[in-house]
Amino acid sequence: MNKRTYIPERFRRVLELHIVKNLMTNITGSVPLLLGIHGASGDGKTYQCEQILTEIGVKAFLISGGQLESPDSGKPAQFVRDTYLKASDCIEKGKSRAAVVLINDIDTGLGNWGNLVQYTVNTQTVFGELMHLVDYPKLVEGIPTRRIPIIITGNDFTKLYEPLVRAGRMRAFEWKPTLEEKAKIVEGIFSEISPQECLALVKEFQSQPVAFFSHLRASLIDEDLWKLIQTAGGTRQAIEMIGDPYNARQPVLHPTIRFEQIVQAGRDIFKSGQLINHLRSS
Question: Who's near 41: CB < 8 A, 6+ residues apart?
Fold first, then answer.
């Protein structure tokens, strides 16, 4: 059985302080409505946010970066506004004590990547909507609302509209897990091996994000699963067995997991990735 998901204290501290400070009304000074968590892809920014919010009982209203673009002018901005109002309404109706709007991978939908992407009217209107919410969090469409903290995640906030992410409007937090933090996270993924072996595993693949180790874990059942497919009579038969909507029979696999086996599987995945990059460059 896997251990409880480990979330580093400094990540938890930033997120939880942001929410609590936005609920308080007697703080001297300006509390930013917006928390921006940025860093390399695959290190668990959004996942950790969702885990913490669930733990502390805060309702998350999710928006993905892809929902911030549309062929209909103004629709994404309206979607952001409606989501904020839904979060406020959730509190007003007593469905939750607190709520946040969580926008994942915001720079994929709103980032200014130069000639690589078209800067659209929707990009401008979404930025305008976010600016309004940040500056007037208790008044939306002329209607008094609850103050709803907004959390955004992304890889590169330098691609965003600068006035939105300036100090005072947004608290920025760069998430770059240390070797020790990453090892503690990996302990939850590979509970079968010791903490010392988890640290050694992270050092072996220290250039890889946390998502790599989760993918590595899933790859360890490949050999046993392939044997099961052959035993079932082939892939078609295995799919019929597993995918039956009324009588699905999910296989229970218990692969033997040893440190050496994990390292070898990781090297195989890493070599495969290098091969793909080599083919692309050539």
Answer: 155, 209, 211
**β partners of residue 140:** 143
Contact 81, 134 (CB under 8 A): no
Q: Which helix (H) or strand (E) holds 240?
A: helix 235-243
Specify the fold of 9-174: Rossmann fold (3.40.50)
Which CATH code for domain 179-281? 1.10.8.1070
Name, in order, each residue with C-beta under 8 angstroms of 45's C-beta and a sequence gap of 6 or more: 37, 38, 39, 153, 175
Using alpha carbons, list the distances in angstroms from residue 120 to 69, 104, 159. 8, 20, 14
Outline where DSSP puts E strands in the chain.
34-38, 59-64, 99-104, 139-140, 143-144, 150-154, 170-174
CA–CA distance, 51 with 12 (Å, rounded to integer): 10
The C-alpha atoms of residue 223 and residue 166 are separated, in whole angstroms, by 51
Q: Return d(Cα 22, Cα 261) in angstroms, integer.
A: 47
pLDDT at 280 over 70: no
Return the DSSP state at 126. Answer: H
Asked if 123 and 74 count as a contact pair (C-beta separation under 8 A), the reply is: no
Question: Residue 27's Cα: distance from chain center in Å?
Answer: 30
Provide the whole-model pTM.
Answer: 0.85
Low-confidence winner among 7-11, 55-59, 157-161, 278-282 (lowest mean pLDDT): 278-282
* Domain locations in the chain as residue ranges: 9-174, 179-281
Rounded mean pLDDT, 252-280: 81
Phi-psi region of 94 (alpha: psi -120 to 50; beta: other; left: phi over 0): left
